[in-house]
Write a structure and sequence with these properties.
The chain is mainly α. It is built from two helices and no strands.
Length: 67
């Protein structure tokens, strides 16, 4: 199961960033884990490939080779 460790990790990271919201984060965590346990939560993983190079006409020239 992928969802449980993700939820745990997100909650832990949120607590590190905003410890003053511990009660809210704990409530969110419990609610999300309850949804997972009840089979009411689904995770969709996707991505988009992106290739971005600096404009050769701006700033310093940078050379890239895709060979």
């Amino acid at each position: 199961e992928v969802q449980r460790p993700l939820i745990e990790g997100w909650a832990e990271a949120a607590l590190e960033e905003a410890p003053q919201l511990a009660e809210t984060i704990a409530s969110w965590r419990a609610r999300r884990l309850a949804h997972v346990d009840a089979g009411e939560s689904h995770l969709v993983v996707g991505h988009r490939d992106l290739a971005a190079w600096p404009d050769a006409g701006r700033g310093e020239a940078v050379g890239y080779s895709l060979r």
